[in-house]
C-alpha cells in the first residue's frame, strides 16, 4: 500500500500531500497519524519555514473522514470507543494544524468535504483551485461535524451563515468559501501550487520568530477576551526583544536596506 502521506521539502517549504487519491484522500486513522508525524518532523526542522498541504490526484483535497473505517468504531456500540478512535484523533489533528508555529497553507485542489473542510478551517491560510468544491455533509450521516467544524466555521463565517451550511449539508463553490472567509483566494487549477508557494515565499522572507509569534497571538487570542488577547500579544513581543531577528529588523529599517534573517 502506498504511504497515505507524502512529504517533500524544497527551498524551506514542506509540501505535505494527502495520498489516497482512489479514496478521494479520505482521512483514515493511518493518514491522520502519519500527518501528525509529518508535522512533528517539520516542526523540529529549522530549515523548514512553512508548509503547504494538498491532496493527491485531480479530484479531491479530501472528501472527509473514512466512513467505512469510523463506522466500525461506531458499530462497537460504545461511545467511548468511537470518541477515542475517531473524534479525539480528528480534533487533535485540526488543533495541531491551527496552533502550528510555522504557517500552514492549504492548497485546495478539489473536493473539501467534511473533515477536508475542517482542515481548511483550521489551517492558517488557504488557496483554492477554481475546481474546488466545499461541503459540510455530516448532517446527512445523522451526526454533527466532529473535527472542530461546529466551532471554527461559525468563528470564520458567523453563526447564521455557518448554521445554514452545517444544517443543510449542501455543497458550495469556492466563491462562497472566499466570501465567508474560509479561503483567501481562488486561482486557476494549474496555478494552484505555484500560488501557494508564492504566498509561502512572501511569508518566509520575514523573521521566523515574528511569524511564529503572530500565529500564536492570533490563534490564542481568538478564544479570549480582547484584554486577555492583548496580554498574549505583549508576551509574544517580549519574547522577541532579546532576539537577533528583532535587532536585525530594526537595524535594516534604520539603514534603509532589506533585513537579513537567519534561514530566509
UniProtKB/TrEMBL annotation:
GO molecular function: lyase activity
Stored CDD domains: crotonase-like
Pfam families assigned: ECH_1
Gene3D superfamilies: 2-enoyl-CoA Hydratase, Chain A, domain 1 (3.90.226.10), Lyase 2-enoyl-coa Hydratase, Chain A, domain 2 (1.10.12.10)
Organism for this UniProt entry: Bradyrhizobium quebecense
Keywords per UniProt: Lyase
SUPFAM superfamilies recorded: ClpP/crotonase
Protein name: Crotonase/enoyl-CoA hydratase family protein
GO biological process: fatty acid beta-oxidation
Family: Belongs to the enoyl-CoA hydratase/isomerase family.
Amino acid at each position: 500500500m502506498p504511504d497515505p502521506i507524502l512529504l517533500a521539502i524544497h527551498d524551506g517549504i514542506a509540501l505535505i500531500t494527502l495520498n489516497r487519491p482512489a479514496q478521494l484522500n479520505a482521512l483514515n486513522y493511518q493518514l491522520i497519524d502519519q500527518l501528525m508525524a509529518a508535522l512533528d518532523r517539520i516542526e523540529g526542522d529549522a530549515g523548514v519555514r512553512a508548509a503547504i498541504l494538498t491532496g493527491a490526484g485531480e479530484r479531491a483535497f479530501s472528501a472527509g473522514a473514512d466512513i467505512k473505517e469510523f463506522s466500525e468504531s461506531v458499530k462497537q456500540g460504545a461511545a467511548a470507543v468511537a470518541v477515542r478512535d475517531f473524534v479525539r484523533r480528528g480534533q487533535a489533528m485540526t488543533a495541531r494544524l491551527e496552533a502550528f508555529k510555522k504557517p500552514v497553507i492549504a492548497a485546495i485542489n478539489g473536493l473539501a468535504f467534511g473533515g477536508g473542510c475542517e482542515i481548511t478551517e483550521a489551517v492558517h491560510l488557504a488557496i483554492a483551485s477554481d475546481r474546488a468544491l466545499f461541503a459540510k455533509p455530516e448532517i446527512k450521516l445523522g451526526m454533527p461535524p466532529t473535527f472542530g467544524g461546529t466551532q471554527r466555521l461559525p468563528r470564520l463565517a458567523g453563526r447564521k451563515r455557518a448554521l445554514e451550511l452545517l444544517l443543510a449539508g449542501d455543497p458550495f463553490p469556492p466563491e462562497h468559501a472566499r466570501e465567508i472567509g474560509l479561503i483567501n483566494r481562488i486561482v486557476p487549477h494549474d496555478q494552484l501550487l505555484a500560488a501557494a508557494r508564492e504566498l509561502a515565499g512572501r511569508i518566509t522572507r520575514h523573521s521566523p520568530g515574528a511569524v511564529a509569534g503572530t500565529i500564536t497571538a492570533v490563534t490564542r487570542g481568538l478564544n479570549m477576551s480582547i484584554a486577555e488577547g492583548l496580554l498574549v500579544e505583549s508576551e509574544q513581543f517580549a519574547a522577541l526583544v532579546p532576539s537577533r531577528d528583532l535587532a536585525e529588523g530594526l537595524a535594516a529599517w534604520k539603514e534603509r536596506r532589506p533585513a537579513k534573517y537567519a534561514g530566509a
